[in-house]
Amino acid sequence: MIPYPSYLHAGDNAWQLTAATLVGLMSLPGLAVLYAGLVQRKWAVNTMIMAFSGFCLVLIVWVLWGFRMGFGQPWIGSFLGKPGTVLGAGAELGRAGVPLLHGLMPGFRFPQATLVYFQFVFAAITPLLFLGSVIGRISFKVWLLFVPLWATFAYAVNAFMLWGGGFWAQHGALDFSGGYVIHLAAGVSGFVAAAVIGPRLKRDRDHGVPNNLIFVSVGAGILWLGWNGFNGGDPYFAGADAAAAVLNTNLATAAAMLTWIVMDMLVSRERKPTFLGGINGMIVGLVAITPAAGYVDGVGALLIGLIGSVVVWLAWNYLSKVWPFNRVDDALGVVYTHGIAGLVGGLLVGVFANPSMIVYLGIGKGPNVTTAGALYGNPKQLLIQAGAALTVIVWDGLVTFAILKFLGLFMKLRMSDEELEAGDVAVHNEEVYPSEALTRVGTAIPAAVGSGKSYGEGTPAPREVSSDRPGT
Known about the structure:
Layout: H1 10-38, H2 44-71, E1 74-76, E2 80-81, H3 89-93, H4 112-134, H5 140-162, H6 167-170, H7 179-197, H8 202-206, H9 213-232, H10 240-266, H11 275-289, H12 298-317, H13 334-352, H14 380-408, H15 417-422, H16 424-428, H17 436-439
Antiparallel strand pairs: 1-2
Helix pairs in contact: 1-2, 1-4, 1-9, 2-4, 2-5, 4-5, 4-7, 5-7, 5-14, 7-13, 7-14, 9-10, 9-11, 10-11, 10-12, 11-12, 11-13, 12-13, 13-14
């Protein structure tokens, strides 16, 4: 007996499963803890249950039809794959493959189950990211229906066009690990969803201070180190390009975080460094390097982190004051730290992509697989990147709008004002830090309708002070 099929390479398979697990940890508990710490105390439970339930929903959709739509045989031209399941023994144990990429890259050396799970964790984190735009008012029932629909009609289309060998892949668009497919999509969809659903209560907007910065630091740290799997896993092999992608990811992130902190100290109104500002910069760096991680060298990575942080800092502080950004309550600023950061990173890979960065080695007279940006004699790449970005922006915006308007025909998209006042107690009958009333068996839970209390009868809400809106 032998443990491995002839095609399987134990190192590649082990790295892909490890990388996938690191990405999964970015969602659970990473984003759940990060977002739960950033929101008001009364929404921590709601945030966590939506993160966990969204993760579950995408997995079911992914194995029933989503994976084939993103990485299967062409179905609707070069824009979408044919739906199908990946639940049979053959589908799980057979050699992994993406039909339209056959011959364009080395054959995978792990089973299909590994590829399905690796791509699932990317699909799962995307709706969890734009959850930050609509937290504190979206109906939980709407969330349970919206996520499967969005994963089907938005994410699968993005994945097929850019990663599954579809339209923009055929035209040479570069998205190493999801700057467009994940982050630009999340920023656009979150912004549109926030506009359709409407703002939080005015009191919540005016006093939306984080409830636990220690949780924020834990979630942010998991996100940063989890990104090693996010970008390091996307060459699909435990090779030199994977190592370069990991190093570049950390270089860009460090540069972006420090840039944001320095700008807060030198340019902001308060002239003070803030932890939340640093976290914003950290996430901007992670997002901006994502479409470029294995295509640029270390200098390019540092520049992407620096430029991305400056652009998003300016957008956060100035663009947010003009229409339409000043009209939409993007609760955690996802349109900036993911949408704009993903767009900037996707465009900059069209500038800094270095042909000396070898993704796959050629054999014999076969050329190495490399890319080149405008600085290396290929200005056309920047136009291709812009075209792919515009497609994602328009398609995801339209799909998000259509799904929510459709669901709005049958149900209310946002919670009632009474639920918005009370928070978790009214919606889930739970609190992140249970009050005495909630711990008494058989005790009726007060709704605290209109009172601003969400901590149990007789327990006043803690005093909150106004601060700059946290972002992720």
